[in-house]
């Protein structure tokens, strides 16, 4: 599963939203000192125990600016939502994703949830695909929807989906795209309305 283009249209004050985003990504040792007979016993400091390395995608940290309800908060939310993509895809952890998804009409939200569930059900592994996102433009608040449209530059690392037996089901090279992200604050938190093709200029 690679580059996906699934488009939805929100009718109203002229903005079109949709979906365009490519489908991340352990032990310790110790030994007791050997004491030779009739020799002085020398205490030996134990070897440091290494921390286990992550075995899957790491959930991004939620930015403090998401507490704001203005353009700054909108930009922080849009970036965070996109950077959640590989985590959700790689873990099928939908708890937060379902909370942030706009309850009606967010095809991007539904597509990601369905795709992550399908990968997990097939016992496949989503590898790579790390996302670095940066809001390049925040448009004025659309008062009809109470939403901020934004253009967000997204750099995504190469990715692959691997079957249980190690077979590569699909693979994609690294990509860079500009996406139109629409977020709205419902009075409690930011919600993702949808994602589509952005303005690269």
Quickly describe the structure:
The chain is an alpha+beta fold. It has helices at residues 71-83, 85-91, 95-100, 107-121; strands at 3-7, 18-22, 125-128, 131-138, 147-156, 159-162, 168-172, 175-185, 190-197.
Describe this structure in words.
- This is DUF6318 domain-containing protein.
- It comes from Oerskovia douganii.
- Pfam families: DUF6318.
- The chain has about 200 residues and is α+β, with helices and mostly antiparallel strands.
- It has a single domain, classed as Nuclear Transport Factor 2, Chain: A, CATH 3.10.450.
- About 20% of the residues lie in helices and about 30% in strands.
- The protein contains four helices and nine strands.
- It has helices at about 70-85, 85-90, 95-100, 105-120; strands at about 5, 20, 125-130, 130-140, 145-155, 160, 170, 175-185, 190-195.
- The strands form three sheets. It has a four-stranded antiparallel β-sheet, covered by helices on one side.
- A hairpin with an 8-residue loop joins strand 4 and strand 5 (about 145-155).
- Helix 2 runs parallel beside helix 4.
- The protein is globular.
- Mean pLDDT is about 80; it is low at about 1-55.
